[in-house]
Fold these 2 entries.
Entry 1:
Amino acid sequence: MTKTFLVADIGGTNTNIALALHDGRHIDIVHKQRYSTRGEPSLPAVVEKFLQSAKSAGRDTRIEFCCISGAGPVDRDHTIRMTNAPWIISAEELQTLLGVPVRLINDFTALSYAVTLIDYRDTEAVRPLPHADGSLPAPSHDGMMLVLGAGTGLGVGFVNRRGGQTVAFPSEGGHSELPCFDGLSRAFHEWLSARFGYPPGAELAVSGQGIANIFEFLASNGETAMRFAHEYGMDQSLLKAGPGEHTQSILSMAREEWPARIAQGRVFDPWCALSMELFVRLYAFKAANLAAIFLPEGGVWLAGGISSKNEAFLLEDGRFMKWFERNYAPHIRAFLAECPVCIVRNYDISLIGAAEAAWQFSERL
């Protein structure tokens, strides 16, 4: 029996919403729209707008279940207070609007469901990252899978598969502590601590806002940047003159525009290049730290727009993996050297995960 679901993925920047058909084996996204989260007053307003667009496109909008994934924890009152957006999402409010059961899940719970459905060999959906020895280990068909992704914030989720059962778990692991591993990362850690008054969480570095924080730190601490530049493969003389025209132009922009411009500028601006180098190392170390906790034989899956948009940079010269494989303990190094790691390329993955969650929840009614 095929069921029709209304599913949505609510991020700090964009809201993706869709009608999905699910027959228990296959998921088909039949109508999809994207909206600006900050440009809309509320999720119910977006849902009404979406349903009208679906009707105009000739789609059947009679749904049986609604599953919403949002970037934030699900509270006991069945609400999500968005981490990086002003919305409060209420299951009760949506249920009143739609007249069907509504389930709210964390966005990385949705991603955790979704990665269990992806074929690791599908190069349109995923891009495996080669290890230092060139190997591409395949994920196991059982056991733990770890999902993390740098976007507006840093999301973390994990899923356990045992005896034919799949259980995805919510997590706020993006707010666990930021790793330090060399002089520059320690200086950045201290800078963040002074700014926020607490030991910084990983999201303050491994995310879009994190790229902006790294860039501001380097641009305002030129001597520190110069002192450690050689450890990042950079010529100190390129930084000696201080931030140039491109760096100054970024600093004058609205802060939400910084990450994309910094990523674009890495090929010609040394401050952007150093920012992105530090970002990738912090991302790799955080992924490795989490992998040491969960031992994900089913792989580490890098979701979020930053990984997919900067895929070539992460792959170049093994940039991500050579830092991912570092650990003081020999047995953990051995595990990391054999742990599958891939970039998720499929932008519909969150909607697919929400549809899979909707199927599982609806089957229990």
Entry 2:
Amino acid sequence: MTALLEIEDLTVAFNGARPVIDNLSLEVAPGEVVALVGESGSGKSMTAMSVTRLLPPAARMSASTLRFDGTDLLTAPDARLNKIRGDHIGMLFQQPKRMLDPTATVAQQVGEPLRRHLGMSRKAAHEHAVELLADVGIAEPERRAGSYAHQLSGGIAQRVMIAIALAGRPELLIADEPTTALDVTVEVQILQLLAAKRAQYGMAMVFISHDLRVVASIADRIAVMYAGRIVETGTADQILNAPQHPYTKALTTCSTLCCNDDGSLYVIPGDVRSAQEITAGCRFQPRCEVAREHGIQAKCRGEEPALEPCGDGSASRCWVTIDRKGPERSDDSGKGAAA
């Protein structure tokens, strides 16, 4: 199947510094949900901004391929990019109340993409906006249409953002931490709503989260990011139930285990290194207990492993899994493994 979204060798840097995203490759098929998972600072949101070409002015981006539904996003003129955003790629952000315009009503904000991208009149856009609000599960949609952002709860605000993102019936939705800061009940409702809309529209999705528990219910495949690199890819079942990379294993432990045997809170030691702190070798090595257990810290410090297939369709960027697998090697793109 031809990929809807193709990313190959994506690199993003700021002001000539070391890249914050380093040779990232990923494919998303039509109708597929691919989750990007990792701690804050791993490059997930920057990857999403790269796809829509909405990076900050200081960012410098390069890629061998950045293509959406056959369109080269690297060379597309601004008018074409503006048409793709909204019409074909929808965006959903965390902290929805901050993303909504405090001076415009809900109906005005939901109606704006309908007027801009679909050419609706003001009256038609208002009527369709009310229908969209009802479609995303907002009670009393006509009344809510006249509300302002400060009058909405977090859950209602996110439903409004979903209505805006889906107004143009996009083929791809990029959802960046859409359940952050929502209580557990509302989080489940939003995930169920996104899953329902995906099924209704046949829509693909890039779902960004720091929480494997959240993506478990919605993702077909998962790509785990660490310090600007994809370190493991696989189906949701593979990543959640048989992770290969030490970082992924630590994330799954954080998602399922609150405390160690002695009652202390389980945490991954250390922090994600910034781009300026990265040197040669595996980027996770300073925090990796597996490297210490296997006595291969020197190897991990000296050379970064490639993203290698694990034999079951998944791939891992770890010397332990590579050495266990044997001499067979692949290229480092991760494209096939992530496809």
